[in-house]
Amino acid sequence: MKCKGFRELITEEEGMGTVEVILIIVVLVGLVVIFKKEIVEIVNDLFDKISKQTNKI
Question: Does residue 15 come out as left (phi exceeding 0), alpha (psi in the -120 to 50 range) or beta?
Fold first, then answer.
């Protein structure tokens, strides 16, 4: 088994998709943590509207 050179290791693109997906997930989790209060208020308002509409039926 031959060891890869440093340049080959840097230019190798295997696994880049995984790294990109993990970075996207980290950013999304960060946004949810930052805007948690606003998200909870929006979801609660939506559920209130839905429950009020179902009561009219």
Answer: left
- Rounded to whole angstroms, the Cα distance separating 30 from 48 reads 27
Cα torsion for 18, 24, 25, 28, to the nearest 10°?
180
Reported as a single tens digit per residue, the pLDDT across 20-47 is 889 999 999 999 999 999 999 999 999 9
3-state secondary structure 1-57: CCCCCHHHHHHCCCCHHHHHHHHHHHHHHHHHHHCHHHHHHHHHHHHHHHHHHHHHC
Both tokens assigned to 34: 């930052």
